[in-house]
Amino acid sequence: MRLVYKLSIAFIVLLFTSLIIMYSIVIDGGSEVGSKLITYWHEEVGNYEVNINSLTAVVHQSLALTLFLFVIVVAIFRMEWRVAAAFFSLVMVVILGLVPPQNLIKSAIEWDLILFLIGSMTLAGVLRELGVFKYLAVNVVRVSKGNPTILLTLIFILAFTLAALLDEVTSIIYVTMLMFELSKLFNIDVKPLIILSVLATNTGSIALPIGNPIGIYLFFTTNMLISEYVRFSFPLALITLIVFTLLVITLKRDVIVNLSNALNKFSGGIDAFVSSYYIQVGKKELKLIYRGLIILTLFITTIVLSEYLCTYLTLISGSEVDHHALLSFIPYIFLVISLMNVPPEKISELLERSVEWSSILFFIGLFILSYSLTYTGAVFKIAYTLSYIKYPSLLLTSFLLSSALLSSVLDNLSVIVSMTPIAILLNNLGLISKEIFFALLSGGVLGGNYTPIGSTANIIAVSIAEKERVRIGWGEWLRVALIITTAQLIVALLWLYIT
Question: Considering the entire predicted model, what is its pTM?
């Protein structure tokens, strides 16, 4: 009851603050920027008679902003309540008449993104069942040959690669499991290894749009081409990985020394670890693993070449094929192929537990709440305020740093969902280039590295550790992440200016 009381107080404070903010911002329809913003809003609501600065509009804007921020506050207090809070808020959006229900169904939800996420998560679950990821992890250990620096570097590369090719959630689950396997085998302190693995995972998740929910959201919402995304993000991800690895080797000598001492005590441990794995895995299982690796490779290749595939399908069908719509169905092609390698009786169970349904539902709730900010005009007022920043470089810096700082203490996806409509408006007004979307991407993903609650990967890693009776505190996390994450954000900012 005490928590409910605190949340009730928080809701009242948020409502009062939102009212002051929305009432204070008055869009001047006589200015060029103000006129364009009001026109955009009228087109969104389909009514050119309404006044964005009227008292009724201010109340609706304040309620929409309050409900959105309330979900974030609930997530801070109790992460497991975030889905319930999101659905409570979206129900209130309908009951209070902030947005017509038909608009929420037709315009609010990015259904192509939802389809893509469900398909990708399910495919990842099937590949996991085939043993693909454990095979990759074991071979990383084998290649290191007991050298602690090489082992750490390979772990970082594995986490980076899995996050880029699949997603941060899949990557961190398997890399964290690998950390505990190493801990049990060599009696090493697993906490810094888990934290470093999370940082490497989030770094890799920037490289491709499928690696992180933020990347997927920005990719679909802003209608980017895959070539645009990869041209900016892939080199940045590689550079930040190199910076990250060098900083770990330079600043975290204690981790390397402790790992070296543990490996030296058990010189035959790694060979025994690898040998026991291959003894347990028979020829039939290895054949399934190799099939899974081929499917994974083809899936990634198809994603990368999807623009060319889209052009080809347009030519042969005679109708224009939308690139993002096509991407939504690519996972299902390879899902059908991969399911041929799974016993029929396991398919239903596998499909049910592979998808993070709570995340999917949270996505839907966030889409609706974000759209309510647009429909009521709250986003247009915030964009009008930001339009006073006349220098594009200052705008880029502001968006990167603000998204990074907010993502360190709030759910980073929520932060980006709330800031993206503003970035789109500023881009449409010609005040900033598309680099602003990459500023949000870099800030949201890398900023989430600062704390244990900054991203989904962080929360999952900490949860797995707690199940193993290993508690990772904020102080321990910050000692590892603070300098490394700050350096990565500086690199990202410089990369924005260079590109």
Answer: 0.73
